[in-house]
TrEMBL record:
EC number annotated for this UniProt entry: 2.7.7.7
Name of the protein: DNA-directed DNA polymerase
GO molecular function, one term: exonuclease activity
CDD domains: DEDDh
Reaction catalysed by this enzyme: DNA(n) + a 2'-deoxyribonucleoside 5'-triphosphate = DNA(n+1) + diphosphate
NCBIfam families, A to Z: dnaq
Domain PAS, residue spans: 136-202
SMART domains referenced in this protein's UniProt entry, alphabetically: EXOIII, PAS
Annotated InterPro entries: DnaQ, PAS, PAS-like_dom_sf, Ribonucl_H, RNaseH-like_sf, RNaseH_sf
Stored Pfam families: RNase_T
Coiled coil stretches, renumbered: none
Species this protein is from: Coralloluteibacterium thermophilum
Keyword vocabulary terms for this entry: Exonuclease, Hydrolase, Membrane, Nuclease, Signal, Transmembrane, Transmembrane helix
Length: 482
């Protein structure tokens, strides 16, 4: 039970106990009253006294709830946000002005935490500055290698890929961190090579084989090697592996051919994924282990039954961070005029969506991008209703697990607070760049940052798993209904 509920129950018990005491006293006195005409007056006096006691207790409870219980919760929410969400803004002690020295003391603690965090950040920046150049050089080297390089877990989930891998596999959606490589590469030869290396039990052994990229149909020459135990921490049940791919051409007898040079490269990796255990069920998966797609839509209006999508954008969150480069963004042709009032909000005009994909095509592409992920949105029922209207057209269901940052905000900060995206961003210190608000990508990025900070606060409250958070979120469903 929350603090305010405990306080309410305390005063309710006090009021009912007082009324019961008055009634008991009146009954005891009535039993010893000889004059019968005094009994009605005694009952009336007892009833009046009971009502007055209940009114007094209710009035004191309302004052206590407003100035003590609610103030304590507000102070606790502010401290927790600063402790777990890297929010360094000055704590507003005005709401807790009736708590004596507690509010100023809490403000001093928050200020001290901000100073310590700033000093630590500066020290960390100084210590890592000398490594940044070397890391940038290594990233550029790996990104622009003339071969596709991938590192995968024993479950064939991607831990590292470079630009050549994106170009060579040519799948839709593109490979991404924590995605299954089996979505883009023929499973049989890959699994056979892995089993062969496991049986060999030789850390220096490598296995060459041929396979096909399922997205592009390209024939590939591959070389697999298991990672040595020194290259990973051994927490997984089976060793991960590194994979090098070359384009073998259409003729399987041809030797491997290098890909032509590309302008610019991309490299994505998260080696913490090698040590992350996979939960047997989603409900038991820890928050930081969730793979999420945080998305937003812009529409022609606010009625899902009558309006249409004009823009969809999303980012992927893997292992507790937004993955740079793994994004989805498209304008959508609503096949109807966009009202001027809607254009005034999101800035999208009829001319901008001319030639954009229709909603069925855009929704199908987004469905592939979000495959296997938890969907996260701000006021998710609104966006999900628009997406679910496309299910018949795309032949697939948007049956993903869903988290809503409105309800997560209510769970963290209480239902009486403002839970708009702007208010949530202010409370959590999320900066939305000028011009990005009410664009699908701008709102998706802001929601992702807010989600990560809310998740940190929830973990601090002991809500560690998806099941824990989902149960807590459902307790606050009336925030959306209201």
């Amino acid at each position: 039970m929350g603090l305010r509920l405990r306080v309410f129950l305390f005063f309710a018990l006090l009021g009912l106990g007082s009324a019961a005491a008055i009634a008991t006293g009146a009954w005891f006195a009535a039993g010893r009253t000889e004059a019968g005409d005094a009994l009605p007056a005694l009952v009336q006096a007892a009833l009046l006294a009971g009502v007055l006691v209940l009114v007094l207790v209710t009035w004191v409870w309302l004052l206590f709830d407003a100035h003590v219980a609610r103030a304590v919760e507000t102070l606790a929410h502010g401290l927790r946000a600063r402790a777990h969400a890297a929010e360094d803004a000055e704590l507003d002690a005005e709401a807790a002005r009736y708590l004596g020295d507690l509010a100023p003391a809490a403000a001093e603690v928050a200020q001290g935490l901000a100073i310590t965090r700033s000093a630590l950040a500066q020290a960390t920046a100084r210590e890592t500055a000398r490594l940044s150049v070397e890391k940038a050089r290594l990233d550029a080297l790996l990104a622009d290698l003339p071969v596709a390089v991938l590192v995968c877990t024993a479950e064939h989930r991607l831990v590292l890929y470079n630009a050549r891998a994106l170009a060579l596999l040519g799948a839709v959606p593109a490979p991404g961190l924590d995605r299954s490589l089996l979505d883009t590469l023929e499973e049989g030869p890959l699994a056979a090579a892995y089993r062969q290396l496991l049986a060999a039990a030789d850390p220096e052994a490598a296995c060459g084989f041929r396979c096909t990229a399922t997205g592009s149909g390209r024939h590939l020459a591959a070389r697999m090697r298991l990672l040595r135990e020194s290259e990973w921490d051994g927490a997984a049940s089976a060793p991960p592996y590194a994979l090098v791919l070359l384009d073998a051409g259409r003729d399987d007898s041809a030797g491997p051919a290098l890909l032509p040079a590309t302008a610019g490269g991309a490299l994505a990796y998260d080696f913490d994924l090698l040590a992350r255990p996979y939960a047997p069920a989603l409900a038991a998966t820890r928050l930081e282990a969730l793979t999420c797609v945080v998305f937003d839509t812009e529409t022609t209006g606010l009625a899902p039954s009558a309006d249409a999508i004009v823009q969809i954008a999303a980012v992927r969150v893997v292992n507790g961070r937004v993955v740079e480069g793994e994004t989805f963004e498209t304008l959508v042709d609503p096949c109807r005029p966009i009202p001027a009032g809607s254009t005034a909000v999101h800035g999208i005009t009829d001319a901008m969506v001319a030639g954009a994909p229709p909603v069925a095509e855009a929704a199908a592409r987004f469905h592939r991008f979000a495959d296997g992920a938890v969907l996260v949105a701000h006021n998710a029922p609104f966006d999900m209703e628009f997406l679910r209207r496309t299910e018949a057209a795309i032949g697939a269901r948007f049956d993903h697990p869903v988290l809503d940052t409105v309800l997560l905000s209510a769970a963290v900060f209480g239902q009486r607070e403002d839970h708009s995206l702007d208010a949530l961003a202010r409370r959590l210190g999320v900066v939305i760049p000028e011009g990005a608000r009410h664009t699908a990508m701008g709102d998706a990025v802001a929601t992702a940052e807010a989600f990560l900070r809310l998740a940190a606060i929830l973990r601090g409250r002991g809500l560690d798993t998806f099941g824990d958070v989902l149960a807590e979120m459902r307790r606050h469903g009336r925030v959306l209904r209201g």
